[in-house]
Amino acid sequence: MNNASVSSGNGESLIYASGLTKNYGNGTSAIPVLHGVDLSVSPGEMVAIMGPSGSGKSTLLFVLGLFLSPTGGTYRALGEDVLKLQRKAQAEFRRRYVGFVFQSCNLVENSTVYENLELPLIYAGINRNARQAKIEAALERVDLSHRIRHPANLLSGGEQQRVAVARALVNNPRVILADEPTGQLDRKHSQTVMNYFRNFVMDGTTAMVIVTHDPEVASYCTRVHNLSGGMMQAPEGVVSNM
Ligand SMILES: Nc1ncnc2c1ncn2[C@@H]1O[C@H](COP(=O)(O)OP(=O)(O)OP(=O)(O)O)[C@@H](O)[C@H]1O
Ligand SMILES: [Mg+2]
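^ thats the input. predicted complex w/ adenosine-5'-triphosphate below
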């Protein structure tokens, strides 16, 4: 990875995707899901993606998070041509710059909440005391301070989802990709989580893409797109009072 080419947050897009296509499988059995998605997200922007189940929202997020290679198209993240990186360099890029909230949470089940949040900080080389401070702060933001030493697999679905949000933000990502991060939350905690995201993105150096089915969640965002027919439809306008 060439750090010199990584954007310093001067207003250019942190996410710039053009003509992204994705087929699952090959040849005659290929299942086309993305048909040429264009998406550009600048620092300080929070973009909601809505669309019917099966329309490819998670697929798009996996491509943007470098978990899946697209079949075609271009994608620059923080100004870097990330599709050209080797898999290992892509994983390193993701660890450094991307906070990803999986639709299914993906917590390390036989570890505590603390250990789940500690992992990205250990990868980032942060010392023990600083790790603890960051973990406590992140858990407080999602209203889970009291669960810090709890085994992750003994949490409720909504608690696990909030741990997944805290884990994604604990290392100050420049790009947040969140796949229905409030799907299991009650309204109060959904608002708590959305305010956390919004405050984070409002610092002006971070960009976020959030997949949601919930119009109230979308109302926190600066732009709402609809993914349908494998293409990104025009934004439905600025809806928030950010
Ligand atoms: N690994 C895979 N292999 C083959 N097809 C897949 C795979 N993953 C997803 N698909 C198909 O791709 C399509 C898009 O799936 P995706 O999970 O991206 O949809 P989604 O918009 O996130 O849906 P939901 O709102 O239900 O989460 C679906 O038809 C799905 O069956
Ligand atoms: Mg999905």
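The two ends are 34 Å apart (CA to CA).
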